[in-house]
Amino acid sequence: MAAPAPWQLQAARWIRPVAWIGGLVPLLLMVLAAFTTGLSADPIKEVTHRTGWAALLMLMLSLSVTPLRALTRWNWLAPVRRTLGLCAYGYAVVHFLIYMVDQGFSWGYITEDILERPYVTVGFAALVILTPLALTSTKGMIRRLGKRWQKLHRLVYVAAGLGVLHFLWLVKKDLREPLIFAAVLAVLLLFRVLPIGKAKKQKRDPPRRAPAPERPAVRG
Amino acid sequence: MLIKKPEIPSSEITPEGLYLNRRQWIGAAAGAVAAASVPSALLACAPGGEQDDKPNSYEDITSYNNFYEFGTDKSDPARNAPRTLRTSPWTVEIGGLCDRPGRYAFNDLVRANRVVDRTYRMRCVEAWSMVIPWRGIQLRDVINQARPRAGARFVEFTTLHDPAQMPGQRRQVLDWPYLEGLRMDEAMHPLTLLATGIYGRPLPAQNGAPLRLVVPWKYGFKNIKSIVRIRFVDRQPRNTWQVSAPTEYGFYANVNPQVDHPRWSQARERRIGEWRRRPTLMFNGYSEVASLYSGLDLRRNF
Which of B78, B69, B49, B127 is nearest to B288 (CA)? Predict the structure, then answer.
């Protein structure tokens, strides 16, 4: 492979802080709205929706890193996957915390919701699934888990599917937004099973497994 | 075209605080003078009642609306409706099984009837609620004027259907025009209003100007907005949300904490402006309507 162009080296240097800032944009927009336009007459509902929406968006963006790398060979994009994945988990946790505040921390109602209302069940399941993935996202855990790490992290596809289902099942009538998420996820998943995605992935597999990181040794 | 500001100068608008004091004064006076003669229903929300019902702000009431004719987001109606909806002139057609059908200019319809101020709780099927000081006329007065025939067992209401004025109607998110219906005894109940205003001001476009239904013991979607037609019929009318999702929304749509929406609980609600959810009350607290439904299985007729 040819050596990366100078701008790509620059990109590799900045990608991590840029990804973090990008991941925090929904949060910043929420704070901005709180001080300017306000968060509607029902701020709890508004913040619940916004954090849920942000979690799904981050998950989709995180899942698009691998296809994008395969298509462009921009391997410096790699760290974005983890950063945005962690942001997705962060938004999902806040989303659930606000839901618990909304329910006044009455465990009776919360367990009833989780057990009996399918849209809550699948949303909660997605959060549960994402938890071990977030906990094992460190470099140390990647090393320690070795091959099992990749297997474990395939669960992200399940979590993403459940997250989209959660959105799809809760809207009253206007299905446009959840259907867009569903379509995006379908494309991202399709890429992983279709030959184009597979072939390119295979080529890159050996360097990825090597202990030396393929990104330049830049610490954010 | 610039966004049109409300036509009333702010100097002419009674401040909310004053308005509330006035209401309290009237409420107290009415309570003292007419306790014996006024049906208890009319004082359901009078100050000093057991409910803690502080009216929501004008801002909240007019910025957080479900009015899919202007978009499905609750902020869409306030953004779109005032620009596109022409509420004057406005004609309401009254017809069907009655002796005096006719087309009425909105102003004539209102002028012919006694205007009342009523502060009601409004419970949305989405499990939030507000307290709204309505101004309007009693639907029963309009019905009596039209002289319904013996066969008229239901009243059907229709919203304006004009995608040019109601951009949300360009998408078939619901089956336009929006339809609603009431049984005749529900329509004749003294609590049932045709609202023309909020806080003593004309109804804003996003709240269903110039004329909307208010049935306080039912979920908010029964309160059909921007009405152009009222018809007396002999069969239970179709109503839009029931047509859209028959397992989730019924004809009666009485507020009932014991009958959950298939997807979410109706046991509690968030009053807009409050953090903690409060228990939802049977018939939204208007227990005087219970007799209308004696013998009716409210679980099946949700």
Answer: B49
Please state, in angstroms and as integers, the Cα–Cα distance from residue B60 to each residue in A71, B16, B53, following that order: 49, 12, 15
Count of A-B CB contacts under 8 Å: 47
- CA B106 vs. chain centroid, Å, equals 17
Answer for the pair B140, B116: CB distance below 8 angstroms, yes or no: no
Cβ under 8 Å to A: B residues 15-44: none
DSSP annotation of B285 reads: G
Instruction: Please report, as a single letter, which amino acid is at residue A89.
Output: Y
Indicate the SS3 state at residue B263: coil
For residue range B69-79, list pLDDT tens digits in order: 999 999 999 99
Half-sphere exposure of B260 (CA within 13 A, CB side): 11
Q: Which residues contact A141 (CB under 8 A, 6 or more apart)?
A: A135, A149
Dist CA B60 CA B204 (whole Å): 12
Q: Up-side HSE of residue A116: CA atoms within 13 Å toward CB?
A: 12
Span A135-155, average pLDDT: 94
Q: Is the pLDDT of residue A195 over 80?
A: no
Q: What is residue A7's predicted lDDT score, i.e. its pLDDT?
A: 87
Chain A residues closer than 8 Å to B74 by CB: 40-41
Nearest to B180 by CA among B227, B115, B259, B240: B240
ipTM of predicted complex: 0.81
Question: Does A117 sit within 8 Å of B272, measured CB to CB?
Answer: no
